[in-house]
Amino acid sequence: MQLLFAALHPFTSQRSFIMTPLRQRMLEDMGIRNLAENTQLSYLQQVSLYARHFERSPEALGPQEVRDYQVHLTKTRKLAPSSVSIATAALRFLYKVTLKRDWMPDDIPMPKKPFRLPVVLSPEEVAHFLACVDSLKQRTILTTAYAAGLRVSEATHLKVTDVDSQRMMLRVDQGKGSRDRYVMLSPRLLEALRSYWKIVRPKTWLFPGHIPGRPITTDAVGLACRKAQRAAGIAKPITPHSLRHAFATHLLESGTDVRRI
Questions:
Q1: Residues 6+ apart with CB under 8 A from 208
Q2: This protein's superkingdom (predicted)?
Q3: Which of 99, 138, 145, 243 has its CA 20 to 30 A from that of 251?
Q4: What is the rounded distance in angstroms from the CA atom of residue 93 to the CA atom of residue 104?
């Protein structure tokens, strides 16, 4: 049976989705609403896995199948609530927006995520961790993520022209929510960026990747982060996003106004 959504193995398969009317319509609906590219890819992937599970078109499925699939994700695959929420959001978009089904919100219930306080690194731990990053480029990008409180996707997409040393600002182009914004550029970060630039001499992207004309990937930064954590011997979980949490916490502890943070 040929599904309206072809299955795609997460992040590894080189096969593309079969272009079908339903997939095309959902893609157009997401584009009209200016959903982020990663969100669009995630939603398409989740709907494909859903269709593959039942081996039927999503158009032929209803609230009972959605419920059964959520039970499957929770009980059989034992996914975390956050992962089930991603699948649920994709199905809500498909049925509410693209297929325009007149269902009640409880027909596709959203799992409640448990609230957990993040494990925050101390300033000393951050300094020790960054010192263990063996690549200059990776150390500078992780330093930038911490010192400016950037998401890893924002740090990887910085351009040389985004560094405004006159106003002591970094321009973040199309960050989360497709919004441009400026963030603080501290003198120490500016010094680190200048030292990095003198050695690497990037032209367009501040942190270029291996593919000409493209920035470094977030996966490459994540790999460097894990490698540095092992070298640092820090038991706390460390991800690029951990540095963003540490940035906000350290500012708060230093007396910075919470509205400014």
A1: 202, 214, 215, 216
A2: Bacteria
A3: 138
A4: 13
Cα distances from 242 to residues 64, 206, 219, in angstroms, run 39, 22, 15
pLDDT digits (tens, 9 = 90+) for 201-215: 999 999 999 998 999
Instruction: Please work out, in degrees rounded to the nearest 5, the angle formed at the alpha carbon of residue 58 by the alpha carbons of 72 and 109.
Output: 50
Q: Which domains does the chain have, with CATH numbers?
A: 21-107 (1.10.150.130), 123-253 (1.10.443.10)
Cα gap 226→189, rounded to integer Å: 22
Instruction: Extract the runs of DSSP E, i.e. beta strands, from 30-75.
Output: none
The token duo for 6 is 């072809």
The pair of three-digit structure tokens given for residue 80, joined into one six-digit string: 């975390």
Question: Which residue, among 125, 121, 145, 135, has the nearest Cα to 232 in the 3D structure?
Answer: 125
Alpha-carbon distance values, 210 to 155, 207, 220, 227 (Å) = 16, 10, 10, 19
Distance CA 152, CA 239 (A): 9
